[in-house]
Design brief:
Elements: H1 4-34, H2 38-65, H3 72-85, H4 88-109, H5 117-122, E1 126-131, E2 134-139, E3 148-151, E4 161-164, E5 168-171, H6 173-176, E6 182-184, E7 189-190, E8 195-196, E9 201-205, H7 213-227, H8 234-257, H9 260-270, H10 273-292, E10 295-297, H11 300-308, E11 311-314, H12 316-320, E12 326-332, H13 338-349, H14 355-366, E13 374-380, E14 384-389, E15 392-397, H15 407-419, E16 422-428, E17 431-439, H16 446-455, E18 460-464, H17 469-479, E19 483-485, H18 490-501, E20 506-510, H19 516-521, E21 524-528, H20 534-539, E22 542-544, H21 550-585, H22 591-609, H23 625-640, H24 642-655, H25 661-698, H26 705-731, H27 736-763
Parallel strand pairs: 11-18, 11-20, 18-19, 20-21, 21-22
Antiparallel strand pairs: 1-2, 1-3, 3-9, 4-7, 4-9, 5-6, 5-8, 10-22, 12-17, 13-14, 14-15, 15-16, 16-17
């Protein structure tokens, strides 16, 4: 008995072979008819018809086993009828239509297969077991509860267990999606599948291979994929009522006229070619349009379901956020400047592979801070990196136990807690001198994407994340989500997906291995494939190959439009077929003429279906090249101006420090210089270059009016700061009566600038690819 592989191989050549045979038979018969050999022509057309009957019967039987009679049943009745009454040309035409529709669908469905190869490839095959002083590799199946294992740097934890001895530093993003490594101390539980991001550590196994977390994820993904309901084609849904109607009209025509030819003529014009061709053409056109934007859709069924979806579930890290920590703020202790703190931290961290170290080095480079040369650099897992820089011992990471924490450092700790940020402390010769706050930021294109998705028909948008509730709720509030579920395991995500599927067609978007089971369980799984895990891409129906979440909105708009056009084409074609059925039942259309008329109907509905290839101008505003270049220019300037925003905030904070009036005045002078030389020229250029260039795209100058008002407020506050500096210069110092207003100006300016930058990045800069 042939297995699944042989069946799949047979299916891969059946549709194109049938298309070739039916097209050849129809063409050969036409040539012979033109040469006057009608008998040979009829033979060719009869062979073409017969070649279509056999596979069509197989497709009908498959549909019946699944519990529904599909569109192919009408085609089988029409094919059999044409053979019975000798209308071979009509049968050959129907066979060609049937083969063309099936070939279009098969081409879309063969784009990729959903499997778990990547999940299985990530899973370790062996473990290193310690027996006394000897460490030797053993097959993972031989690991028993209680065994002492050694996990080397960069290795995947083979089974669930507890840390023995020194703490372990782990990259748990494969399970939780969170990019920042975590520390597990002696006695704490470690789950299989996570990666050792620090030095080697020992693990006491608490579960076997089959009972461990990672094996459970693989089983979840398999189970979720197996439970997915078979896709019912759009054509089959309409055939559910069109089929009995067609058979009833044909039967009545035969009953009242006594002519079997009339019944066959009814079946010929009833052959649902608009269903066989128009719907697949529209869906495949949508697939083609999506692929041009970097959206790979597994098959037409996935695109069709995306067009009907009403609930969207989103992972947080890597989907709504960038998936990589970035420097949020730099705090400097007394006598130090933030730029120097960041430069020294980058000097040591440039030798570290830690994900937070990469973020610090990147931030220093963006601000054009050149790291020095560090010597005697070492890294302690879970503690940080150490090195000698310019003759001083510099450490970046956690504070050593017992280190005195000054007041400025407590303020930095509080801000990190409020912002949900991680803290990398900079100590010089054992004393803390600065802190770098890091956080995974919201994607600039996320708010616009969610607005577009709601416009496309998404009625409910919920975040599912393994992260802590506090940052998840903050992000959900900013984006206006309908719900948030935090601290979820992969099994919890699958349960949430199943619950939402009971209410509406549901889309799940994620990027990590921990998301793979949920992607498989959803009606439509969407993977962020540009930087996401291969496992999530393999489990998904749709893969976004570019690192832009707004491609999801593009794909949804394409899916909605393609499905709408498919429905229009199918219904319009069926209405024309119903009119032709009436004419055939009255004897006005013989089978061959009916088949030719059906061809004309097909051409009309196919041309309409091909509209799905065209760009929907309303989906994404079209930018002129000059406007796009300006967006990239000002986006880069936003990065360069981060040190100006930091200086404004630092000056406001220093005004509150007692006895720091002279230092505060010096910093306010520097802030005034930065505002005049760097910030205000940037805002002026945006107002007079960027906004006019965006006007045609956004619908006129009124679209940027509120942002222009922000420019005016920034200029007003900057002028107020300049006035305070002039007063202080004239008086020789900052007077007490100036402090309250100047502090309010600086804090207000910092707030307005942050909000203004964020609005521009989300509303304008996200328009450019």
């Amino acid at each position: 008995m042939p297995g699944p592989a042989s069946a799949q191989t047979a299916a891969s050549w059946l549709e194109p072979a049938l298309l070739a045979v039916t097209a050849s038979a129809l063409t050969a018969g036409g040539v012979l008819w033109l040469l006057g050999d009608t008998d040979a022509a009829d033979l060719c057309w009869a062979l073409g018809t017969a070649s279509a009957v056999v596979p069509a019967v197989g497709w009908v039987l498959t549909s019946l086993r699944r519990g529904h009679a599909g569109v192919d049943l009408i085609a089988v009745l029409a094919l059999g009828g044409t053979l019975a009454v000798g209308e071979y040309l009509a049968g050959a035409l129907i066979g060609l239509m049937l083969a063309t529709g099936r070939a279009l669908e098969a081409t879309a469905q063969r784009r990729a297969s959903r499997d778990l190869r990547a999940l299985l490839a990530h899973a370790p095959r062996t473990a290193r077991r310690r027996t006394g002083t000897e460490v030797r590799p053993v097959p993972l199946a031989e690991v028993a509860v209680g065994d002492l294992l050694v996990v080397g740097a960069g290795e995947v934890v083979p089974v669930d267990g507890q840390v023995v001895g020194p703490a372990a530093v782990l990259d748990e993003s494969v399970l939780t999606g969170e990019s920042a490594p975590v520390e597990r101390r002696s006695g704490q539980t470690v789950r299989s599948g996570v990666v050792n991001a620090g030095g080697a550590f020992e693990l006491r196994a608490t579960a076997t291979e089959q009972d461990s977390t990672y094996a459970g994820i693989v089983r979840l993904a398999r189970q979720a994929g197996a439970e997915a309901a078979p896709v019912v084609r759009l054509a089959d849904r309409y055939a559910a009522w069109f089929l009995p109607l067609s058979v009833a009209v044909a039967g009545l025509a035969w009953l009242f006229s006594g002519s079997a030819v009339r019944a066959v003529a009814v079946l010929v014009v009833a052959t649902p070619c608009p269903l066989l061709l128009a719907a697949p053409v529209a869906i495949v056109s949508g697939l083609s349009r999506a692929s041009r934007l970097g959206v790979v859709v597994r098959d037409g069924g996935a695109l069709e379901r995306l067009g009907r979806a009403r609930t969207l579930l989103l992972d947080k890290t890597g989907t709504l956020t960038g998936g990589r920590p970035r420097v949020l703020d730099v705090t400097a202790g007394p006598g130090w400047k933030p730029a120097e703190v960041l430069r020294l931290a980058a000097t040591v961290d440039q030798y570290s592979p830690h994900v937070l170290a990469h973020a610090i080095v990147d931030a220093a480079r963006e601000r054009e801070l050149e790291p020095s040369v560090a010597t005697d650099v070492s890294e302690e897992a879970g503690r940080g990196a150490h090195g000698v820089v310019e003759g001083r011992r510099v450490t970046v990471g956690r504070l050593e136990p017992g280190t005195p924490v000054p007041d400025w450092a407590r303020a930095a700790e509080n801000r990190a807690l409020l912002d949900g940020a991680a803290v990398a402390w900079l100590t010089v010769d054992g004393l803390p001198v600065g802190a770098v706050l890091l956080r995974d930021p919201l994607r600039h294109d996320a708010p616009r994407t969610l607005r577009r998705l709601r416009t496309a028909g998404m009625e409910r948008i919920v975040m599912l994340t393994g992260d802590r509730p506090e940052p998840a709720r903050e992000l959900a509030a900013v984006l206006g989500l309908d719900g948030v579920r935090a601290e979820l395991t992969p099994a919890d995500k699958v349960a949430e997906v199943r619950a939402e599927r009971r209410r509406a067609v549901t889309v799940m978007v994620g990027d990590g291995v921990n998301d793979a089971p949920a992607l498989a369980a959803a009606d439509v799984g969407v993977a962020m494939g540009a930087r996401g895990s291969t496992a999530s891409s393999e489990a998904a129906d749709i893969v976004l190959t570019t690192d832009r979440v707004d491609r999801l909105a593009d794909a949804t708009s394409i899916a909605v439009r393609a499905r709408r056009i498919a429905v229009q084409s199918a219904l319009g074609g069926m209405l024309l077929s119903l009119a032709a059925m009436g004419a055939a039942a009255m004897g006005l259309l013989p089978p061959t003429v009916g088949a030719l008329l059906q061809e004309a109907i097909d051409v009309a509905v196919i041309l309409n279906a091909l509209r799905a290839l065209r760009v929907d101008q309303g989906a994404r505003p079209a930018l002129e090249p000059a406007a796009e270049a300006l967006i990239h220019r000002f986006a880069a300037e936003h990065e360069d101006l981060q040190d100006v925003l930091q200086a404004v905030r630092d000056a406001a904070a220093l005004l509150s420090a007692p006895g720091q009036e002279a230092q505060a005045l010096e910093l306010v002078r520097e802030v005034n210089r930065l505002l005049i030389e760097r910030l205000l020229p940037h805002e002026y250029a945006e107002e007079h270059q960027l906004y006019p260039a965006l006007g045609p795209t956004l619908g006129g100058p009124e679209a940027t009016a509120t942002m222009s008002r922000a420019h005016a407020e920034i200029e007003r506050l900057s002028g107020r700061v300049a006035t305070h500096v002039a007063l202080a210069e004239a008086q020789g110092a900052l007077k007490s009566e100036q402090l309250e207003d100047l502090r309010a100006c600086l804090y207000g300016l910092h707030t307005v600038l942050r909000l203004h930058f964020t609005q521009e990045e989300e509303n304008y800069f996200s328009l450019a690819p």
